[in-house]
Amino acid sequence: MKTKTVILSLTVAIGFAALGTYATLTRAGATVTGVPVTPADTTATAGDTGTSARVNVKALAANLEFLSDKPVLAGHPLLIEFWATWCPPCRASIAHLNDLAKKFHASGLQIVGIADEDKAVVERFRGQTPMNYTVALDSNQALAAAFGVQTIPQAWLMDKDGRVVWSGHPMELDEQTINSVLSTNPAR
Question: Is residue 160 situated within a structural domain?
Answer without folding.
Answer: yes
